[in-house]
Design goal:
Layout: H1 13-17, E1 24-25, H2 31-42, E2 53-59, H3 63-69, H4 74-80, E3 85-92, H5 105-122, E4 126-130, H6 135-141, E5 148-159, H7 167-170
Antiparallel strand pairs: 1-5, 2-3, 3-5, 4-5
The chain binds flavin mononucleotide.
Flavin mononucleotide binds next to strand 4.
């Protein structure tokens, strides 16, 4: 477990030690390694076992990587430049078995993403999710059908030194903290007049 992160209650250590690095070495990630990440994603739970997640990925050096990189906002570009692989995670919005809307398709894709992130971390890779990119252009550039929602992008690479990051990101290259359990779990219902004010910024 990281010195910087303390669990309040006993928990599997790798859950706490995963964190999203931005600093990456400009080195490739092998396809075999990547397949282990997708293998982990594959075993995520989903409603009716519908497995709505689909990962579109590109290795640095390919034209598709350039296209994906071009979807990112300016800040994400600053650190993703060294990522070995970029991905777009999309999820099928309707069940394959009956065509009905899957209200939990984003949630299911999120479970797959976390599996992937935990697996990558266990293999010594840097894995960070992203939402600051052009969702609509992701759809058009990669021909994503309307049946699929674009959920997030993911950068995977080899961990690098924080000094390699632009100065404004160096201070943020550290594990984040979390709300206490008492602020996220409520026995028998939410407190009266509950609102969600006071959430932590990144
Ligand atoms: C769906 C999603 C979108 C995110 N978008 C971005 C992003 O655009 N840029 C970025 O640098 N980090 C992004 N992050 C990383 C979060 O800021 C990070 O996961 C959060 O601060 C918790 O830190 P940790 O992952 O190190 O525990 C995103 C994470 C998720 C899960």
């Amino acid at each position: 477990m990281s010195d910087l992160r303390q669990a309040e209650y006993p928990v599997l250590p790798f859950i706490v030690s995963r964190w999203s690095r931005r600093a990456m070495l400009p080195e490739p990630v092998a396809n075999d390694e990547l397949m282990s990440l997708f293998e982990a994603a594959r075993w995520a739970p989903s409603s009716y076992n519908c497995q709505p997640w689909r990962f579109i990925f590109a290795h640095r050096g390919s034209p598709q990587w350039d296209t994906m990189f071009g979807l990112l906002d300016e800040l994400n570009r600053q650190w993703c430049i060294n990522a070995g692989v970029l991905m777009i995670l999309v999820s099928r919005t309707r069940y394959e078995y009956n065509g009905k809307q899957d209200r939990s398709c984003a949630l299911n894709a999120g479970a797959a993403w976390e599996n992937l992130a935990l697996q990558g971390t266990s293999m010594g890779l840097a894995v960070r999710g992203m939402q600051d990119f052009d969702y609509e252009r992701a759809r058009t550039e990669f021909g994503i059908p309307s049946l699929y929602d674009v959920q997030m992008m993911i950068a995977v690479g080899r961990p690098g030194n924080r000094e390699s990051l632009p100065e404004r990101l160096q201070g943020r290259e550290t594990p984040t903290q979390r709300k206490p359990v008492s602020e996220i779990a409520f026995e028998n219902g939410l407190p009266e007049d509950y609102d969600s004010a006071g959430s932590m910024a990144d």
